[in-house]
Amino acid sequence: MKDMDTDKAVENGKILFQSAENLMQAALDLDALMESIWDLLAEETFLGGEMKDSSHADDNSGNDWITPIYSANGEVRGKGKGSPRLGTITYVVRLCGKGSLLPPLPNWPWLEQASLFVGWHKLNDYWGPEDFEPSEADNLHHRGHGLWAYRDEKDRQDYGHFFALPLFSLRTENDLKRFIVTPLKTLFQADDLEAVVKEALREVPVLLPSSG
């Protein structure tokens, strides 16, 4: 019995080692992805404003990819000194969850695969890594066509929005432009999301709940 336990421990150690090594090898690609998204968004205007770097306490910024979730935040401000903030933009890479998945689980398509989230607020707030965990099941709602929204019990309207993509659907700079920058700009600037979301996300490989 002791030998079997030792063999199992060694095997588990090898699996963990290989998983960590794979993640380390992927770190350069993940860093490049995050930088490329930022550079492309920084070239755009949103409601006439520009995206600026924003330090935020919930940011998991850095080069340490032995972490389940990595996020970046920006604020959109009008051009010129002292211009008002028009909203915030967040993108999050979620490699896996922060804890064990225990039933009952929400019908979310990102719970068991590496995903990238593209979110925005028109208010003074940001999406945080914890917002995509099952603990938020009562607050996240699918609005159709791959658009998701946050609304807690006290809100009378959606508080923020996002869409999610399989991480490995983003392979080229053209993918980043087509699947992130273009739809994000359309949705961020829309006065009526319901009127534009279907067309905005039509060609985007968004993650959908299994029930549609």
Number of helices: 3
Summarize the biggest pleated sheet.
Answer: 8 strands, antiparallel
Return residue spans where pLDDT drops below 50 for at least 5 consecutive residues.
none
Write out the strand line-up for the largest beta sheet, numbering strands in chain order. Answer: 1-2-3-4-5-8-7-6
Q: Could you state the order of secondary-structure elements as H and E? A: HEEEEEEEEHH
The percent range for strand residues is 15-25%
> Strand pairing plus helix content: what structural class?
alpha+beta
End-to-end separation: 49 Å
Structural Rg = 19 Å
Shape annotation: globular
Mean pLDDT level: 84
Report the count of strand segments.
Answer: 8
The percent range for helix content is 25-40%
* Subunit organisation of the chains: single chain
